[in-house]
Amino acid sequence: MEKYLYIALFAPFVSSLFSALFTATPKKLFTGIIASLLIFTSLVSSTILLIYLFKGGEPIHVEMMTWMATGDLYIPFGFLVDQVSVTMMMVVTLVSTVVHVYAIGYMDHDKGFNRFFSWLSAFVFSMMILVMSDNYAGLFIGWEGVGLCSWGLIGFWFHKESASWAANEAFIMNRIADLGMLIGIFLIYWNTGTLQYDGAFAAFHTLDPTTLTWIGIFLFIGAMGKSAQFPLHTWLADAMEGPTPVSALIHAATMVTAGVYLVIRSNELYSLIPDVGLFIASLGTFVALFAASMALVNRDMKRIIAYSTLSQLGYMFAAAGLGAYWVALFHLMAHAFFKALLFLGAGNVMHAMHDELDPFKMGGLKKVMKWTWIMMTIASLALAGIFPFAGFFSKDTILEAAFADHHYVIYGVLLFTAGLTAFYSFRLVALIFHGEERYKLFGIHPHEAYRFMLVAMSPLLLFAIIAGVFQEPFFHMVEELLRAHEYHIHSHTTLWIMLLGTQIFVGLAILYAYKKYARSGIKVPDGTSATENSFIYKLLINQYYIPYFYEEYIIRPYRELSAVFWQKIDIKIVDATVDGIAGIIYSTGEKTRTMQSGNLSTMLKWMVVGLVVLLSLAVIFGVTVRYSDGAASALSGLGVM
Amino acid sequence: MFEAVAFYLFAFLTIAMFYIVVTTKQALYALTALAAGMIFISAFFFILGADFLGAIQIIVYTGAVMALYAFGMMFFDTTRDVKEKQGNKYIIVGLSTLAAVLIVLIVSVPMVSDNIVALYPVADDIGNVQSVGLVLFTKYLIPFEVAAIMLLVAMVAGIVLAGKKMDLSLTLMSGEEIEDMKKEKNKKVLS
Amino acid sequence: MMEIGLNHYLVLSTILFAIGLVGVMKRKNLLLLFFATEILLNAVNIAFAAISHYYGDLTGQMFAFFVIAIAASEVAVGLGLLIVWFKRHGTIDLDLMTSMKG
Questions:
Q1: CB C98 to CB A597 under 8 A?
Q2: Architecture of B1-76 per CATH?
Q3: B89 closest CA partner among B22, B15, B18, B17
């Protein structure tokens, strides 16, 4: 069984290295094919491990080698495959395989084809390290690795100024959050003496609540950066500058869920500090509503889907904060499938529309792109939470969990957000695929994507439809590890009212979206209509002016400060000192060069000068040694006398 | 008492002679003063009971080295005064005085000479020459042999540097070439 | 003052050494520079012999002996070089021998 662990872990690494050999050469098809095959191998290994664990096998724990063994600190490169990590592994490898195959078609005409696969596989490898590691340090390595690969992939088209800027923004925001996470890890080590999960979790029960609260808060700050919770959320929307497969893999299914994974993995910690959990849940709920509101009016197709991701991450954190860790993990899994499907479908549309992103400029595409239309509609239905698709099972369970624990405010907000989610998802679908064909005004001739890309997307479609079936078996698999319990609303009638009410509310939202956006006669908004100039619209479309706030009040002063530091301190003081030292040595050499006059007489004089200097040193030392004992011992220590 | 008188007399003479060597403008005066100084130094050796060393000083230094210098002087024009651009007198004298004072300080304090053990002690009943011979050929044999090789090398070097036509080798040339060379020389002489 | 001790000889040797140093620094004629070097060597010989006498150790005399041998060979080689230089350049003035100027 251990060999499957190593295969699953290192196959992406091999794939990345292999593709890296060809980064400087033009597109070679086999890099994509071999990369996809290797990731598929990883998928197969993960499936084998999943089946093994599902049948009741013991979690597999290996220690590959020692990383640090200094003093009391012992950190190995250890890997753990238990029920939680195998779920994450399945999600990551499945979506990665699909995305790799899809990318062979999507990046067809790109010069950096080989480089793309190298970065993509490196990302998968880092994510696997993150989820398979058995200690916080290994998790952090994976954390940083996915941050780096995300930077490389968002800024893939680096000659585009906006893309590099977005990549830097993502990396820097993650870094700021990582500081919090590091402090959390330090606190864990300081208080428990180990970073291994089992050791730390066992020791948590002996710590006092204040320490635990701080640890929980700091670890959550790290999760906030990676999973783009408020206020570190602006990078996610800007990260859409990267190629669409990147958005599908990283910003829907895997990297942004790393924060949720951290909270789920540390569930033993968070169950001891329910107040922090409540804060996490509240923040998650707030972000869910916040992101959904921004998606209502946005005119960038990928951004809408990005805000949807942000919103669903809020849902996951709400579930995790309320203690329903298994529900969060299940929603993570289901969400990965339909969100990746949405992104890949959007990729098809983008390619067909020659990288046009404004859905108002599309319309009526269902005639030309039938399969994409079907996939995106089903994915949106799943996202909205319509029975019997995957989203219903996961989202409704979250609502049940909130209701059953008597957090009615959270329940209400999440319910309202579910409606908003349905509305903006179907607004997007309606604008793109229904109505009249506005794209003809812009002279674009769309066509469906390659057949093999559609075939690659089909496993995601399948899982988006049927994943609800897995809820019961999943619950049984993780119930021991995550202390899961089913949520029972006390009276049956309340339960049925809730279920039906949610479905009706969501269904109404969908119908409203269709009515408003699927009719003919929609014009491309050009900034003059009344809706566009209303206050709420402006607020939402500028993302509540938060990026503006960051730019004006944080980035600009910091840049000024950096300029001051650079010019006044670095150049004038540090560089001047170093150059000054070199200058002194140089000028000393210049001046003493004249000593070598070639004149023997002068040199003899210098020789006598040196002789006199040495004699005086001898006298000084000798007299000191003879007449003072302290100096004698010091000098004998130096080995002089 | 005699020892004191002899010491001070010879000390005064030696210092005077060497002073002349250092300050005179005529090269011949310097040479003769140096030779005289060497002899007076050998007097010191005799006072100190180092008979062999004194004899060696006279034979080698005064006899051989000074003779060598005298022959060397023949190459250079010794009738002229030596013209020298003077460096700063005060620096030179000052430095030397300083060096002298420091050395005297070192030996008189004294600084390092606390436990000196005689390694090859003088035996009073056999004469100085015999004891020198004893030590030289037993304990100091290797330096002795090395010094011999060094003298050989110096001799060869001196010959090569100063000799004429040192690039020809009579042993390596054939008989005809030697004949040709002789004819050349005769031609120069006769014509 | 009457009793001659080791210190007297050492002071004498130091004075002679200082005179030699003055000569070495002052002289610009190469041949006269060699003379000053001889003075230095002789001063040191006196010191060796004196120490040997007052400590009853023959090592000093041995060293003086070897110093004489070395001085002799040094003179031979030095004069040889001096002659070669003189034949080539026609002068033995130190101030004109600055081809090693760096």
A1: yes
A2: Up-down Bundle (1.20)
A3: B22
